[in-house]
Specification:
This protein is mainly alpha-helical. The protein has one domain. The protein contains six helices and three strands; from the N terminus they run αββααααβα. A hairpin with a 2-residue loop joins strand 1 and strand 2. Helix 5 packs antiparallel against helix 6. The protein is elongated.
Length: 161
């Protein structure tokens, strides 16, 4: 039985993790542009939904106010995380992507749980939150695994020396 050199296995694992995280990021951002809410006969994406929520409710400066104020930055943070990875700051990119995935996944899950899904005039459309949550899960798994994989590879290399 032949063994694959460690560097080849590590490179293959890195590619798989990057692809997983990249697909997760794409799904996460794409899901924010899909319909999240139906208001009468109008479909609204997550950005329009957040804008309406801020206008119609007193979210203030609490946690909900901060979350809704930060929501429009989802695409920018995703692009920044991808750019950091490409530029070589892989750990920083993985942490940024993990934080973004937790944030976006939490918002998507809360939208599915808290918004009405009945046949009322205002109801949740699950396409956007489900795609966003799925992308967040993939991005989080990719980022955390990349962090863990890198650490174990460094430890293995140090043990060999």
């Amino acid at each position: 039985m032949t063994s694959v050199p460690r560097s080849t296995a590590a490179a293959t694992t890195d590619r798989v993790l990057v692809a997983l995280g990249g697909c997760g990021l794409l799904l996460l951002v794409a899901g924010t542009f899909l319909p999240w809410l139906r208001s009468g006969s109008v479909l609204r994406n997550s950005y329009q939904t957040v804008r309406i929520a801020r206008r119609l409710s007193a979210l203030g400066d609490g946690v909900q106010g901060v979350l809704t104020a930060a929501w429009p930055a989802v695409g920018v943070v995703a692009a920044l995380g991808a750019a950091l990875y490409v530029l070589g700051a892989r750990r920083i990119a993985a942490v940024a992507i993990a934080l973004l995935a937790v944030f976006a996944g939490t918002v998507a899950m809360l939208a599915m749980v808290l918004l009405p899904a009945s046949e009322s005039t205002v109801r949740v459309i699950p396409a956007g939150p489900v795609v966003t949550l799925g992308g967040a899960i993939l991005a989080l798994v990719g980022a955390l695994t990349l962090l863990a994989w890198r650490r174990t590879e460094v430890e293995r290399t140090q043990e060999e020396w």
